[in-house]
Amino acid sequence: MPLDPGRTVAELRELRELTGDENGAQRVAWTDTWERARDWLRGRLAGTGADEEIDPAGNQWFTLRGASERVLVIGGHIDSVPNGGWLDGCLNVLAGVEVMRRLSEEGEPPLTVRLVSWADEEGARFGRSLFGSSAAAGSMADQDELRSRVDANGIALPQALSEHGVDLDRALDARPQLESAAAYLELHIEQGPVLESLGLALGVVLGTFGVERHQITFRGQAAHAGSTPMDQRRDALAGAARLELEIREIAKRTGAGAVCTMGSVVTRPGIVTSVVETAECLLDQRHLDGAALASMLDAAKSASERIAGEENIEVEWERVWRIDPILFDDELIGLAEEAVREVAGESHRLPSGPLHDAAEVSRAGIPTVMIFVQSLRGLSHTKLEDTKPEHLELSVRALDVLTSKTLAHLSGA
Ligand SMILES: [Zn+2]
């Protein structure tokens, strides 16, 4: 049976029926609905002869043995956020199912091919994203902290995991799963507006953004709103407001996809009759190039100091979180570009703003690439998330062609 991308679209709709409601997808990891999705996925692969295995981190693997022990991995995640979209994560898994079907029809592949549905990519219930992939990649190092995490109902993370057969203390035993991996491929919806604005169905992802996240506190002086003349104020909010406008210029000057966001400003005392004494801002900066990211951070710091001087207030920076950019594999990027051109005519290279399981796999040293398919209106993590069916079908074809090219490349054919 040749590849049938229309079947993938039908199966995505079937999964939506099975695990969604009027508010959207409800496949939150470590819940009964998620388990139902995993059972259903098992049924989809029944005819392929693939062996199933759930690893110690809860990742669900399907393996088609090939002529070689080396492994090509295709990955996605079947979990969703609550009230999520119908494509985020599961498109990759179901496109992978279709590729596995095609391969199993054709006899033994030159390499072993494995499809993985990563456990808890979204971190929706316990706030810990990329759970399964970070365990398999060996980068998970926060078990002590995870032990004390609870969900909104007060259920502890280790308890919830054990109900689904996962022992937090043994999650890193998933590490051997990636030991023979020679390449990792992931297809995903873009979750942003870039491909749609370019009128393109598909793009090739260069890597995931590096992120710098800081809390910036401006300190002035609380003073009566009626009795303090405008030229004698030390207004902390003026610092925050001017910096907010400045970071937009910094991102624009840096270019190449640079983004800077001031996502929150909390003012104190926060009453209408007082000049603001402290303004606590949260700043998020992202870039695919580490040096460009560092210079955006420097530029924001020096702007904040200049503004503080002009406003006669103080400013203090504290790092909240950071991650380096993660760059995908040059050769696989080239193959993905060929695959996208073959099925869609034109390709575009773009960075990924969100992190994905692919970032964890790439960080573990396994050559990795992702393909993005256009998202309508750039929306995701909402029931409004959508992609045209014809673009979904093209994306399945692109993953299939990329799989063939990668197998040929790795087996020296
Ligand atoms: Zn996703």
Would you write up a description of this structure?
37% of the residues lie in helices and 23% in strands. The chain is elongated and about 85 Å long. Strands 3, 4, 5, 6, 7, 8, 13, 14 and 15 form a nine-stranded mixed sheet that branches. It is built from twelve helices and 15 strands. With 413 residues, it is α/β, with parallel strands linked by helices. Helix 3 packs across helix 12. The chain starts with a helix and ends with a helix. Bound molecules: zinc ion. The site of zinc ion has 5 residues, from loops.
Would you summarize the structure shown here?
With 413 residues, the chain is an alpha/beta fold. The chain contains twelve helices and 15 strands. The strands form three sheets. Strands 3, 4, 5, 6, 7, 8, 13, 14 and 15 form a nine-stranded mixed beta sheet that branches. Strands 10-11-9-12 form a four-stranded antiparallel beta sheet, with helices on one face. Strands 1-2 form a two-stranded antiparallel sheet.
Secondary structure: elements and pairs:
Layout: H1 5-19, E1 20-21, E2 24-25, H2 32-44, E3 51-54, E4 60-64, E5 68-76, H3 90-105, E6 111-117, H4 131-137, H5 143-147, H6 157-162, E7 181-189, H7 194-198, E8 202-208, E9 210-219, H8 236-254, E10 259-268, E11 278-287, H9 290-311, E12 314-323, E13 326-327, H10 330-344, E14 349-352, H11 357-363, E15 368-373, H12 389-410
Parallel strand pairs: 5-6, 5-7, 7-15, 8-14
Antiparallel strand pairs: 1-2, 3-4, 4-6, 8-13, 8-15, 9-11, 9-12, 10-11
Helix pairs in contact: 1-3, 1-12, 3-12, 4-11, 8-9, 10-12
The chain binds zinc ion.
